[in-house]
Protein backbone atom coordinates (compact mmCIF):
# COMPACT_ATOMS: atom_id res chain seq x y z
CA UNK A 1 0.00 0.00 0.00
CA UNK A 2 2.72 2.42 1.15
CA UNK A 3 4.86 1.63 -1.84
CA UNK A 4 1.98 2.48 -4.24
CA UNK A 5 1.50 5.89 -2.53
CA UNK A 6 5.24 6.61 -2.69
CA UNK A 7 5.36 5.61 -6.35
CA UNK A 8 2.37 7.85 -7.11
CA UNK A 9 4.01 10.82 -5.33
CA UNK A 10 7.33 10.31 -7.12
CA UNK A 11 5.53 10.06 -10.46
CA UNK A 12 3.57 13.25 -9.74
CA UNK A 13 6.76 15.05 -8.73
CA UNK A 14 8.57 13.88 -11.86
CA UNK A 15 5.62 15.02 -13.94
CA UNK A 16 5.64 18.53 -12.40
CA UNK A 17 9.45 18.89 -12.68
CA UNK A 18 9.39 17.52 -16.23
CA UNK A 19 6.50 19.74 -17.26
CA UNK A 20 8.23 22.84 -15.86
CA UNK A 21 11.48 21.88 -17.57
CA UNK A 22 9.81 21.38 -20.94
CA UNK A 23 7.79 24.56 -20.45
CA UNK A 24 10.87 26.62 -19.57
CA UNK A 25 12.74 25.20 -22.60
CA UNK A 26 9.81 26.16 -24.79
CA UNK A 27 9.53 29.60 -23.24
CA UNK A 28 10.35 32.36 -25.59
CA UNK A 29 13.56 34.29 -24.96
CA UNK A 30 13.62 37.81 -23.58
CA UNK A 31 14.37 40.54 -26.13
CA UNK A 32 18.10 40.79 -26.88
CA UNK A 33 20.44 43.09 -25.01
CA UNK A 34 23.92 43.48 -23.55
CA UNK A 35 25.04 40.52 -21.46
CA UNK A 36 24.25 41.09 -17.79
CA UNK A 37 26.76 40.20 -15.06
CA UNK A 38 25.65 38.24 -12.00
CA UNK A 39 23.93 40.15 -9.22
CA UNK A 40 24.00 43.70 -10.61
CA UNK A 41 22.90 42.79 -14.14
CA UNK A 42 23.59 45.64 -16.58
CA UNK A 43 23.52 48.37 -13.92
CA UNK A 44 27.25 49.14 -14.20
CA UNK A 45 27.18 49.33 -18.02
CA UNK A 46 24.73 52.23 -17.98
CA UNK A 47 26.51 55.60 -17.63
CA UNK A 48 25.20 58.10 -15.14
CA UNK A 49 25.63 60.93 -17.63
CA UNK A 50 22.98 60.87 -20.37
CA UNK A 51 22.19 57.12 -20.12
CA UNK A 52 19.69 57.46 -23.00
CA UNK A 53 22.62 57.94 -25.40
CA UNK A 54 24.00 54.53 -24.43
CA UNK A 55 20.56 52.97 -24.87
CA UNK A 56 20.34 54.55 -28.30
CA UNK A 57 23.65 52.88 -29.20
CA UNK A 58 22.31 49.52 -28.01
CA UNK A 59 19.22 49.88 -30.21
CA UNK A 60 21.56 50.07 -33.21
CA UNK A 61 23.25 46.84 -32.10
CA UNK A 62 20.28 44.79 -30.86
CA UNK A 63 17.23 46.22 -32.61
CA UNK A 64 14.29 48.39 -31.47
CA UNK A 65 13.40 46.35 -28.39
CA UNK A 66 16.02 45.35 -25.84
CA UNK A 67 16.02 43.81 -22.40
CA UNK A 68 18.27 44.70 -19.51
CA UNK A 69 18.69 43.48 -15.98
CA UNK A 70 18.88 46.07 -13.25
CA UNK A 71 19.71 44.00 -10.20
CA UNK A 72 16.85 41.55 -10.01
CA UNK A 73 14.47 43.60 -12.20
CA UNK A 74 13.88 42.96 -15.89
CA UNK A 75 13.67 46.17 -17.90
CA UNK A 76 12.38 46.22 -21.48
CA UNK A 77 13.35 49.36 -23.38
CA UNK A 78 11.44 50.38 -26.51
CA UNK A 79 13.33 52.26 -29.20
CA UNK A 80 11.03 53.17 -32.09
CA UNK A 81 7.47 54.30 -32.81
CA UNK A 82 6.29 50.90 -34.04
CA UNK A 83 7.22 48.99 -30.89
CA UNK A 84 5.90 51.77 -28.68
CA UNK A 85 2.66 51.71 -30.63
CA UNK A 86 2.36 47.91 -30.40
CA UNK A 87 3.26 47.51 -26.74
CA UNK A 88 2.11 50.73 -25.11
CA UNK A 89 -0.85 51.75 -27.25
CA UNK A 90 -2.29 48.54 -28.73
CA UNK A 91 -1.60 46.47 -25.62
CA UNK A 92 -2.35 49.27 -23.18
CA UNK A 93 -4.46 46.91 -21.04
CA UNK A 94 -1.25 45.18 -19.88
CA UNK A 95 1.27 48.04 -20.08
CA UNK A 96 -0.41 51.00 -18.37
CA UNK A 97 0.62 50.25 -14.83
CA UNK A 98 3.61 51.60 -12.92
CA UNK A 99 6.31 49.56 -11.22
CA UNK A 100 6.73 49.86 -7.48
CA UNK A 101 8.81 52.95 -6.72
CA UNK A 102 9.85 51.78 -3.28
CA UNK A 103 11.97 54.76 -2.26
CA UNK A 104 10.28 57.68 -4.05
CA UNK A 105 6.73 56.40 -4.29
CA UNK A 106 6.30 54.46 -1.05
CA UNK A 107 8.82 55.87 1.44
CA UNK A 108 8.84 59.54 0.38
CA UNK A 109 5.38 60.01 -1.16
CA UNK A 110 3.61 57.35 0.95
CA UNK A 111 1.75 56.16 -2.18
CA UNK A 112 -0.19 59.43 -2.28
CA UNK A 113 0.97 60.56 -5.76
CA UNK A 114 -1.40 59.14 -8.40
CA UNK A 115 1.36 59.38 -11.05
CA UNK A 116 3.22 56.57 -9.29
CA UNK A 117 0.23 54.34 -8.58
CA UNK A 118 -0.48 51.11 -10.45
CA UNK A 119 -3.26 51.17 -13.03
CA UNK A 120 -6.05 50.36 -10.58
CA UNK A 121 -9.41 51.78 -9.53
CA UNK A 122 -7.80 54.27 -7.14
CA UNK A 123 -5.62 55.70 -9.92
CA UNK A 124 -8.58 55.77 -12.31
CA UNK A 125 -10.71 57.67 -9.85
CA UNK A 126 -8.01 60.34 -9.24
CA UNK A 127 -7.18 60.52 -12.91
CA UNK A 128 -10.85 61.19 -13.73
CA UNK A 129 -10.91 64.01 -11.18
CA UNK A 130 -7.68 65.52 -12.54
CA UNK A 131 -8.86 65.26 -16.15
CA UNK A 132 -12.21 66.89 -15.34
CA UNK A 133 -10.30 70.19 -15.10
CA UNK A 134 -7.00 69.50 -16.81
CA UNK A 135 -8.37 69.08 -20.30
CA UNK A 136 -7.68 71.02 -23.51
CA UNK A 137 -11.02 72.88 -23.40
CA UNK A 138 -10.42 74.24 -19.91
CA UNK A 139 -6.77 75.03 -20.63
CA UNK A 140 -7.93 77.86 -22.91
CA UNK A 141 -9.77 79.47 -19.98
CA UNK A 142 -6.49 79.78 -18.07
CA UNK A 143 -4.68 81.63 -20.82
CA UNK A 144 -5.14 85.03 -19.11
CA UNK A 145 -3.17 83.63 -16.16
CA UNK A 146 -0.28 82.70 -18.45
CA UNK A 147 -0.39 86.09 -20.16
CA UNK A 148 -0.23 87.95 -16.83
CA UNK A 149 2.57 85.70 -15.56
CA UNK A 150 4.49 86.17 -18.76
CA UNK A 151 4.38 89.95 -18.48
CA UNK A 152 5.88 89.64 -15.04
CA UNK A 153 8.53 87.23 -16.31
CA UNK A 154 9.56 89.64 -19.08
CA UNK A 155 9.73 92.51 -16.60
CA UNK A 156 11.94 90.47 -14.27
CA UNK A 157 14.15 89.43 -17.18
CA UNK A 158 15.08 93.08 -17.75
CA UNK A 159 17.68 92.58 -15.00
CA UNK A 160 19.63 90.33 -17.42
CA UNK A 161 20.36 87.75 -14.69
CA UNK A 162 19.03 84.66 -12.91
CA UNK A 163 17.02 83.46 -15.89
CA UNK A 164 16.11 80.09 -14.35
CA UNK A 165 14.70 81.75 -11.27
CA UNK A 166 12.51 84.00 -13.49
CA UNK A 167 11.16 80.92 -15.27
CA UNK A 168 10.57 79.13 -11.98
CA UNK A 169 8.76 82.11 -10.58
CA UNK A 170 6.58 82.43 -13.69
CA UNK A 171 5.53 78.77 -13.53
CA UNK A 172 5.10 78.67 -9.77
CA UNK A 173 3.00 81.83 -9.78
CA UNK A 174 0.75 80.64 -12.64
CA UNK A 175 0.06 77.32 -10.91
CA UNK A 176 -0.54 78.98 -7.52
CA UNK A 177 -3.18 81.12 -9.18
CA UNK A 178 -4.87 78.18 -10.89
CA UNK A 179 -4.69 75.77 -7.96
CA UNK A 180 -5.36 78.08 -5.00
CA UNK A 181 -6.20 81.58 -6.32
CA UNK A 182 -3.07 82.84 -4.62
CA UNK A 183 -0.80 84.52 -7.09
CA UNK A 184 2.75 84.46 -5.71
CA UNK A 185 3.86 87.99 -4.81
CA UNK A 186 7.55 88.93 -5.11
CA UNK A 187 7.82 88.90 -1.33
CA UNK A 188 6.82 85.24 -1.23
CA UNK A 189 9.54 84.14 -3.61
CA UNK A 190 10.57 81.69 -0.91
CA UNK A 191 7.50 79.66 -1.91
CA UNK A 192 8.93 78.78 -5.30
CA UNK A 193 12.36 78.26 -3.66
CA UNK A 194 10.84 75.83 -1.12
CA UNK A 195 9.11 73.88 -3.89
CA UNK A 196 12.35 73.71 -5.83
CA UNK A 197 14.34 72.55 -2.80
CA UNK A 198 11.86 69.72 -2.27
CA UNK A 199 11.94 68.91 -5.97
CA UNK A 200 15.73 68.82 -6.02
CA UNK A 201 15.59 66.30 -3.17
CA UNK A 202 13.05 64.12 -4.96
CA UNK A 203 14.90 64.37 -8.27
CA UNK A 204 18.02 62.91 -6.68
CA UNK A 205 16.05 59.82 -5.76
CA UNK A 206 15.93 59.00 -9.48
CA UNK A 207 19.72 58.42 -9.50
CA UNK A 208 20.73 54.81 -9.67
CA UNK A 209 22.75 55.03 -6.43
CA UNK A 210 19.62 56.10 -4.56
CA UNK A 211 17.56 53.34 -6.13
CA UNK A 212 19.22 50.32 -4.53
CA UNK A 213 16.01 49.25 -2.88
CA UNK A 214 14.17 49.52 -6.19
CA UNK A 215 16.81 47.49 -7.99
CA UNK A 216 17.05 44.86 -5.25
CA UNK A 217 13.60 44.78 -3.64
CA UNK A 218 14.84 41.93 -1.45
CA UNK A 219 16.82 44.54 0.52
CA UNK A 220 13.47 45.71 1.88
CA UNK A 221 13.67 42.81 4.29
CA UNK A 222 17.25 43.59 5.31
CA UNK A 223 17.20 45.29 8.69
CA UNK A 224 18.73 48.77 8.56
CA UNK A 225 18.64 49.64 4.86
CA UNK A 226 14.90 49.89 4.47
CA UNK A 227 14.54 51.45 7.91
CA UNK A 228 16.87 54.35 7.08
CA UNK A 229 15.09 55.04 3.78
CA UNK A 230 11.67 54.87 5.44
CA UNK A 231 12.74 57.20 8.25
CA UNK A 232 14.15 59.80 5.83
CA UNK A 233 11.03 59.43 3.67
CA UNK A 234 8.72 59.96 6.63
CA UNK A 235 10.48 63.18 7.65
CA UNK A 236 10.30 64.43 4.08
CA UNK A 237 6.62 63.50 3.71
CA UNK A 238 5.75 65.29 6.95
CA UNK A 239 7.54 68.47 5.87
CA UNK A 240 6.00 68.30 2.40
CA UNK A 241 2.47 67.80 3.72
CA UNK A 242 2.76 70.63 6.23
CA UNK A 243 3.88 73.00 3.49
CA UNK A 244 1.26 72.00 0.91
CA UNK A 245 -1.57 71.58 3.39
CA UNK A 246 -1.33 75.27 4.28
CA UNK A 247 -1.53 76.20 0.59
CA UNK A 248 -4.41 73.85 -0.13
CA UNK A 249 -6.47 74.99 2.88
CA UNK A 250 -6.00 78.61 1.77
CA UNK A 251 -7.23 77.62 -1.69
CA UNK A 252 -10.27 75.82 -0.29
CA UNK A 253 -11.18 78.83 1.84
CA UNK A 254 -10.64 81.35 -0.94
CA UNK A 255 -13.68 83.32 -2.14
CA UNK A 256 -12.43 82.82 -5.73
CA UNK A 257 -13.03 79.56 -7.51
CA UNK A 258 -9.89 77.49 -8.13
CA UNK A 259 -8.83 73.97 -9.12
CA UNK A 260 -8.40 72.74 -5.53
CA UNK A 261 -12.02 73.63 -4.80
CA UNK A 262 -13.24 71.99 -8.01
CA UNK A 263 -11.36 68.78 -7.25
CA UNK A 264 -12.44 68.78 -3.62
CA UNK A 265 -16.09 68.85 -4.69
CA UNK A 266 -15.55 65.84 -6.96
CA UNK A 267 -13.90 63.56 -4.35
CA UNK A 268 -15.64 60.22 -3.75
CA UNK A 269 -17.01 59.81 -0.22
CA UNK A 270 -14.39 58.57 2.24
CA UNK A 271 -11.34 59.92 0.36
CA UNK A 272 -8.47 60.46 2.76
CA UNK A 273 -7.09 63.98 3.09
CA UNK A 274 -3.54 62.79 2.27
CA UNK A 275 -4.73 61.32 -1.04
CA UNK A 276 -6.43 64.59 -1.99
CA UNK A 277 -3.39 66.63 -0.91
CA UNK A 278 -1.08 64.19 -2.73
CA UNK A 279 -3.00 64.64 -5.97
CA UNK A 280 -2.56 68.43 -5.80
CA UNK A 281 1.03 68.28 -4.61
CA UNK A 282 2.06 66.05 -7.50
CA UNK A 283 0.56 68.53 -9.97
CA UNK A 284 2.54 71.41 -8.44
CA UNK A 285 5.67 69.29 -8.53
CA UNK A 286 4.99 68.14 -12.10
CA UNK A 287 4.55 71.69 -13.40
CA UNK A 288 7.49 73.11 -11.43
CA UNK A 289 9.86 70.31 -12.39
CA UNK A 290 9.17 70.41 -16.12
CA UNK A 291 8.22 73.85 -17.36
CA UNK A 292 11.15 75.93 -16.03
CA UNK A 293 13.46 73.29 -17.50
CA UNK A 294 11.73 73.44 -20.89
CA UNK A 295 11.84 77.25 -20.94
CA UNK A 296 15.54 77.03 -20.05
CA UNK A 297 16.10 74.62 -22.93
CA UNK A 298 14.36 77.02 -25.33
CA UNK A 299 16.43 79.98 -24.09
CA UNK A 300 19.59 77.90 -24.40
CA UNK A 301 18.68 76.97 -27.97
CA UNK A 302 18.09 80.66 -28.76
CA UNK A 303 21.61 81.32 -27.54
CA UNK A 304 23.19 78.38 -29.36
CA UNK A 305 21.45 78.84 -32.72
CA UNK A 306 21.59 82.53 -33.65
CA UNK A 307 20.66 82.05 -37.32
CA UNK A 308 17.47 80.14 -36.53
CA UNK A 309 16.66 82.56 -33.71
CA UNK A 310 16.94 85.50 -36.12
CA UNK A 311 14.33 83.79 -38.32
CA UNK A 312 12.01 83.40 -35.32
CA UNK A 313 12.44 87.08 -34.44
CA UNK A 314 11.92 88.15 -38.05
CA UNK A 315 8.66 86.18 -38.18
CA UNK A 316 7.51 87.66 -34.86
CA UNK A 317 8.46 91.19 -35.94
CA UNK A 318 6.54 90.79 -39.17
CA UNK A 319 3.39 89.33 -37.61
CA UNK A 320 3.33 91.12 -34.25
CA UNK A 321 5.57 94.17 -34.60
CA UNK A 322 7.19 96.09 -31.77
CA UNK A 323 4.14 97.87 -30.42
CA UNK A 324 2.49 95.04 -28.49
CA UNK A 325 3.34 91.75 -26.77
CA UNK A 326 2.49 88.37 -28.36
CA UNK A 327 -0.88 86.82 -27.52
CA UNK A 328 -2.43 83.39 -28.04
CA UNK A 329 -4.27 84.72 -31.10
CA UNK A 330 -0.87 84.91 -32.83
CA UNK A 331 -0.34 81.14 -32.60
CA UNK A 332 -1.52 80.21 -36.11
CA UNK A 333 0.53 82.96 -37.74
CA UNK A 334 3.97 81.79 -36.60
CA UNK A 335 4.88 78.55 -38.38
CA UNK A 336 8.65 78.93 -38.04
CA UNK A 337 8.39 79.81 -34.33
CA UNK A 338 6.22 76.72 -33.83
CA UNK A 339 8.81 74.67 -35.73
CA UNK A 340 11.58 76.03 -33.49
CA UNK A 341 9.65 74.90 -30.41
CA UNK A 342 9.05 71.43 -31.86
CA UNK A 343 12.72 71.09 -32.68
CA UNK A 344 13.68 72.05 -29.10
CA UNK A 345 11.30 69.42 -27.73
CA UNK A 346 12.59 66.80 -30.16
CA UNK A 347 16.26 67.37 -29.43
CA UNK A 348 16.11 68.06 -25.72
CA UNK A 349 13.51 65.78 -24.27
CA UNK A 350 12.92 66.49 -20.61
CA UNK A 351 11.89 62.88 -19.96
CA UNK A 352 14.11 60.78 -22.28
CA UNK A 353 12.41 57.61 -21.03
CA UNK A 354 8.95 59.08 -20.31
CA UNK A 355 7.95 57.46 -16.99
CA UNK A 356 8.44 53.73 -16.35
CA UNK A 357 5.51 51.38 -16.98
CA UNK A 358 4.96 47.91 -15.53
CA UNK A 359 3.64 44.85 -17.36
CA UNK A 360 0.68 43.26 -15.58
CA UNK A 361 0.44 40.07 -17.64
CA UNK A 362 3.01 37.98 -19.51
CA UNK A 363 2.90 38.75 -23.23
CA UNK A 364 4.57 37.55 -26.39
CA UNK A 365 5.83 40.09 -28.87
CA UNK A 366 7.99 39.65 -32.00
CA UNK A 367 8.82 36.16 -30.78
CA UNK A 368 10.07 37.49 -27.44
CA UNK A 369 8.70 37.05 -23.97
CA UNK A 370 7.63 40.19 -22.12
CA UNK A 371 7.43 38.89 -18.58
CA UNK A 372 4.86 39.93 -16.03
CA UNK A 373 6.22 42.63 -13.69
CA UNK A 374 8.89 43.70 -16.18
CA UNK A 375 9.51 47.44 -16.26
CA UNK A 376 8.90 49.03 -19.65
CA UNK A 377 10.73 52.19 -20.65
CA UNK A 378 9.45 53.83 -23.85
CA UNK A 379 12.60 55.71 -24.86
CA UNK A 380 11.32 59.07 -26.10
CA UNK A 381 14.90 60.10 -26.87
CA UNK A 382 15.30 57.20 -29.35
CA UNK A 383 11.97 58.03 -31.02
CA UNK A 384 13.10 61.61 -31.48
CA UNK A 385 16.49 60.52 -32.81
CA UNK A 386 15.13 57.93 -35.25
CA UNK A 387 16.93 58.61 -38.52
CA UNK A 388 14.30 56.75 -40.52
CA UNK A 389 11.88 59.48 -39.42
CA UNK A 390 14.12 62.55 -38.94
CA UNK A 391 16.92 63.12 -41.43
CA UNK A 392 20.21 64.02 -39.67
CA UNK A 393 18.44 63.67 -36.33
CA UNK A 394 21.21 65.26 -34.25
CA UNK A 395 21.12 68.50 -36.24
CA UNK A 396 19.03 71.41 -34.96
CA UNK A 397 16.84 72.17 -38.00
CA UNK A 398 13.47 73.80 -37.27
CA UNK A 399 12.98 74.07 -41.02
CA UNK A 400 12.33 70.30 -41.22
CA UNK A 401 8.89 70.86 -39.62
CA UNK A 402 8.02 73.62 -42.09
CA UNK A 403 9.15 71.52 -45.08
CA UNK A 404 7.35 68.41 -43.90
CA UNK A 405 4.23 69.13 -41.85
CA UNK A 406 3.50 65.37 -41.72
CA UNK A 407 6.42 64.60 -39.41
CA UNK A 408 5.16 62.97 -36.20
CA UNK A 409 5.10 65.27 -33.17
CA UNK A 410 8.17 65.02 -30.94
CA UNK A 411 7.80 62.36 -28.24
CA UNK A 412 7.50 64.58 -25.16
CA UNK A 413 4.43 63.93 -23.03
CA UNK A 414 4.38 60.13 -22.86
CA UNK A 415 1.70 57.81 -24.20
CA UNK A 416 -1.99 56.95 -23.84
CA UNK A 417 -3.64 55.87 -20.68
CA UNK A 418 -0.81 57.54 -18.69
CA UNK A 419 -0.30 60.46 -21.09
CA UNK A 420 0.67 63.68 -19.29
CA UNK A 421 -2.60 65.31 -18.13
CA UNK A 422 -0.94 68.74 -18.06
CA UNK A 423 -0.05 68.66 -21.77
CA UNK A 424 -2.39 71.42 -22.98
CA UNK A 425 -1.43 73.74 -20.13
CA UNK A 426 2.24 73.03 -20.72
CA UNK A 427 1.94 73.73 -24.44
CA UNK A 428 0.19 77.06 -23.79
CA UNK A 429 2.75 78.17 -21.26
CA UNK A 430 5.65 77.13 -23.51
CA UNK A 431 4.17 78.92 -26.52
CA UNK A 432 3.55 82.22 -24.78
CA UNK A 433 6.80 82.07 -22.78
CA UNK A 434 8.89 81.30 -25.83
CA UNK A 435 7.25 83.80 -28.20
CA UNK A 436 7.44 86.57 -25.63
CA UNK A 437 11.10 85.90 -24.88
CA UNK A 438 12.01 85.96 -28.55
CA UNK A 439 9.92 89.08 -29.07
CA UNK A 440 11.72 91.03 -26.33
CA UNK A 441 15.19 89.59 -25.84
CA UNK A 442 18.44 88.62 -27.55
CA UNK A 443 20.40 85.61 -26.33
CA UNK A 444 24.11 85.03 -26.65
CA UNK A 445 26.15 81.96 -25.76
CA UNK A 446 29.69 81.80 -24.40
CA UNK A 447 32.06 79.87 -26.62
CA UNK A 448 32.36 76.83 -24.42
CA UNK A 449 28.66 76.21 -23.89
CA UNK A 450 27.39 72.79 -24.91
CA UNK A 451 24.01 71.15 -25.38
CA UNK A 452 24.97 68.20 -23.26
CA UNK A 453 23.22 67.97 -19.92
CA UNK A 454 24.96 69.47 -16.94
CA UNK A 455 22.99 67.28 -14.60
CA UNK A 456 21.42 64.01 -15.44
CA UNK A 457 19.26 61.97 -13.13
CA UNK A 458 18.82 58.63 -14.90
CA UNK A 459 15.25 59.39 -15.94
CA UNK A 460 15.42 63.18 -16.16
CA UNK A 461 17.31 65.67 -18.29
CA UNK A 462 18.37 69.05 -16.89
CA UNK A 463 20.22 71.32 -19.37
CA UNK A 464 23.27 73.44 -18.62
CA UNK A 465 21.97 76.99 -18.63
CA UNK A 466 24.52 79.03 -16.74
CA UNK A 467 26.63 80.01 -19.68
CA UNK A 468 24.56 82.33 -21.82
CA UNK A 469 23.64 85.98 -21.62
CA UNK A 470 20.42 87.75 -22.52
CA UNK A 471 19.39 91.39 -22.89
CA UNK A 472 16.37 93.37 -24.03
CA UNK A 473 16.34 93.87 -27.82
CA UNK A 474 15.68 97.65 -27.98
CA UNK A 475 14.58 100.57 -25.83
CA UNK A 476 11.15 100.35 -27.50
CA UNK A 477 10.73 96.73 -26.39
CA UNK A 478 11.81 97.66 -22.87
CA UNK A 479 9.26 100.50 -22.72
CA UNK A 480 6.42 98.13 -23.74
CA UNK A 481 7.48 95.48 -21.23
CA UNK A 482 7.51 98.09 -18.44
CA UNK A 483 4.17 99.58 -19.47
CA UNK A 484 2.43 96.20 -19.83
CA UNK A 485 3.66 95.04 -16.45
CA UNK A 486 2.52 98.21 -14.70
CA UNK A 487 -0.94 98.00 -16.31
CA UNK A 488 -1.20 94.34 -15.40
CA UNK A 489 -0.35 95.14 -11.78
CA UNK A 490 -3.04 97.83 -11.69
CA UNK A 491 -5.58 95.35 -13.07
CA UNK A 492 -4.80 92.54 -10.64
CA UNK A 493 -7.39 93.65 -8.12
CA UNK A 494 -9.90 94.86 -10.66
CA UNK A 495 -12.60 92.92 -12.50
CA UNK A 496 -10.17 92.69 -15.47
CA UNK A 497 -7.79 90.45 -13.52
CA UNK A 498 -6.88 87.04 -14.93
CA UNK A 499 -8.34 85.52 -11.79
CA UNK A 500 -11.76 87.05 -12.39
CA UNK A 501 -11.68 85.93 -16.02
CA UNK A 502 -10.95 82.40 -14.84
CA UNK A 503 -13.89 82.76 -12.47
CA UNK A 504 -16.14 83.11 -15.47
CA UNK A 505 -15.26 79.51 -16.46
CA UNK A 506 -16.79 78.20 -13.29
CA UNK A 507 -20.09 77.19 -14.80
C1 LIG B 1 6.97 70.47 -20.64
C2 LIG B 1 6.23 70.07 -19.66
C3 LIG B 1 5.89 68.65 -19.35
C4 LIG B 1 6.43 67.49 -19.85
C5 LIG B 1 7.57 67.34 -20.84
C6 LIG B 1 5.72 66.39 -19.20
C7 LIG B 1 5.98 65.07 -19.48
C8 LIG B 1 5.32 64.00 -18.88
C9 LIG B 1 5.57 62.61 -19.16
C10 LIG B 1 6.58 62.09 -20.16
C11 LIG B 1 4.75 61.87 -18.36
C12 LIG B 1 4.67 60.35 -18.29
C13 LIG B 1 3.62 59.85 -19.26
C14 LIG B 1 3.62 58.35 -19.42
O1 LIG B 1 3.82 57.61 -18.45
O2 LIG B 1 3.41 57.88 -20.56
C15 LIG B 1 3.97 62.80 -17.57
C16 LIG B 1 3.04 62.44 -16.62
C17 LIG B 1 2.38 63.35 -15.83
N1 LIG B 1 2.40 64.72 -15.94
FE1 LIG B 1 3.48 65.80 -17.24
N2 LIG B 1 4.78 66.89 -18.36
C18 LIG B 1 4.84 68.26 -18.42
C19 LIG B 1 4.06 69.16 -17.74
C20 LIG B 1 3.10 68.82 -16.82
C21 LIG B 1 2.24 69.75 -16.13
C22 LIG B 1 2.23 71.27 -16.34
C23 LIG B 1 1.47 69.03 -15.31
C24 LIG B 1 0.41 69.60 -14.41
C25 LIG B 1 -0.79 69.19 -14.40
C26 LIG B 1 1.81 67.62 -15.46
C27 LIG B 1 1.26 66.57 -14.76
C28 LIG B 1 1.57 65.25 -14.97
C29 LIG B 1 1.00 64.16 -14.18
C30 LIG B 1 0.03 64.31 -13.01
C31 LIG B 1 1.50 62.97 -14.73
C32 LIG B 1 1.21 61.55 -14.28
C33 LIG B 1 0.11 60.89 -15.08
C34 LIG B 1 -0.24 59.56 -14.40
O3 LIG B 1 -1.08 59.61 -13.48
O4 LIG B 1 0.36 58.54 -14.72
N3 LIG B 1 2.81 67.54 -16.39
N4 LIG B 1 4.31 64.10 -17.92
From TrEMBL:
<feature type="binding site" description="axial binding residue">
    <location>
        <position position="420"/>
    </location>
    <ligand>
        <name>heme</name>
    </ligand>
</feature>
<keyword id="KW-0479">Metal-binding</keyword>
<comment type="similarity">
    <text>Belongs to the cytochrome P450 family.</text>
</comment>
<keyword id="KW-0349">Heme</keyword>
<keyword id="KW-0560">Oxidoreductase</keyword>
<dbReference type="GO" id="GO:0004497">
    <property type="term" value="F:monooxygenase activity"/>
</dbReference>
<dbReference type="GO" id="GO:0005506">
    <property type="term" value="F:iron ion binding"/>
</dbReference>
<dbReference type="GO" id="GO:0020037">
    <property type="term" value="F:heme binding"/>
</dbReference>
<feature type="region of interest" description="Disordered">
    <location>
        <begin position="487"/>
        <end position="507"/>
    </location>
</feature>
<keyword id="KW-0408">Iron</keyword>
<dbReference type="InterPro" id="IPR002401">
    <property type="entry name" value="Cyt_P450_E_grp-I"/>
</dbReference>
<dbReference type="Pfam" id="PF00067">
    <property type="entry name" value="p450"/>
</dbReference>
<protein>
    <recommendedName>
        <fullName>Cytochrome P450</fullName>
    </recommendedName>
</protein>
<dbReference type="InterPro" id="IPR050364">
    <property type="entry name" value="Cytochrome_P450_fung"/>
</dbReference>
<dbReference type="GO" id="GO:0016705">
    <property type="term" value="F:oxidoreductase activity, acting on paired donors, with incorporation or reduction of molecular oxygen"/>
</dbReference>
<dbReference type="InterPro" id="IPR001128">
    <property type="entry name" value="Cyt_P450"/>
</dbReference>
<dbReference type="InterPro" id="IPR036396">
    <property type="entry name" value="Cyt_P450_sf"/>
</dbReference>
<keyword id="KW-0503">Monooxygenase</keyword>
